User: Fold this.
Amino acid sequence: MLFTECIVEFIGAVIIGIIGVFTNNAFLTGTAITVCSFIAFKSNLSKGSFNPTITLAMALTKKQSWADAPFYILSQVIGAFAVWLLYIKYY
Assistant:
């Protein structure tokens, strides 16, 4: 299950990053965050944080286990790195 959750966190971070970077539109970025989080929460695929800061806050408030937090954060950072690579390639 942890592998699936990490894949969902990676995909969510990539989607939000692509919309945020390539559209440069705060409304679309906010909408993407909302939609991705809603899908993740409703499908029980992950916690739907998509951001290392949110993951850390959830672990601090015990809404997520500390054992899973490093894997979530790694997935989110790799997703952000993938968006950066796309940005370098196309801009």
